Amino acid sequence: MLPGAFDRGASGAQFDHAARTAMDNQGPRWSETSDVLPMFATLVWKVELEAQLREAICAQALTALARMRRDLPPLAPGQGWQSVQSLHELDDFRDLVSCVHRVVPGILRFLRIGYDAYQVSACWATVLARGAVHKLHQHPNNFLSGVYYVRTHPGADTINFHDPRNQTGIIRPPVIELTAENTDQVVVRVKDGTMLVFPSYLQHSVDASASEDERISISFNIMFSSFTENLSKPLWGAATAPARAGAQSSALSPLVRQAVLTRAAQPFCVD
Known about the structure:
Elements lengths: L11 H11 L22 E4 L2 H18 L11 E3 L11 H17 L7 E11 L5 E4 L6 E8 L6 E5 L22 E5 L4 E6 L4 E3 L8 E10 L2 H5 L22 H4 L14
Antiparallel strand pairs: 1-8, 2-3, 3-10, 4-9, 5-8, 5-10, 6-7, 6-9
């Protein structure tokens, strides 16, 4: 690779300038432009709730969770507790669910999804004591998943997201610096009132809590409504003429076959 031609954080013009500069002492100019094309992005959407709403949701959630746990012994070090998965059906969590319903439509618009009927398929609380971990996992049979942080503390205020491209681990050359382009794990720091939403296929984990106080979060899943009736049909259309044996079908929608990388990044807006 040309020295400096693809330095991290440089613009396309800077790539081009660096490439030509690197060739100044190596003969005639050999390229006009060079660039890096980001493809197949894995996105995590992050929203911070405003203070008054955050405190209201916190008070409601803590009261409800205390009531659910009142007959249970305190968590011992290394232990965790999870609630029922139907918190979204309880009045105590209606303000939080309302926030979810303001965030999800914005994500569907950002992704240019052409179907906007969805539902919260599950919602539950997780409480982790000191030393408790949440092992690597994902949320099958959903489109989006999310987590809202009710109580975080120093040493209990991060979540790990893991590279979904498993094949990238087959060859692991050493790197001189970890960047978004070469890492296989991203650590996101959170605080009270942070909401993260991500694809349900994205594996994530939580390191052992180093806080004496409990870490409390509320997770949720999002799935399209009436999926079987509306979204499970084949994406290809009927052929206009019988295809000969072994022929490649051309009936796929152009939107399915390819995406032209010309659209500028779109802003993400919540309702």
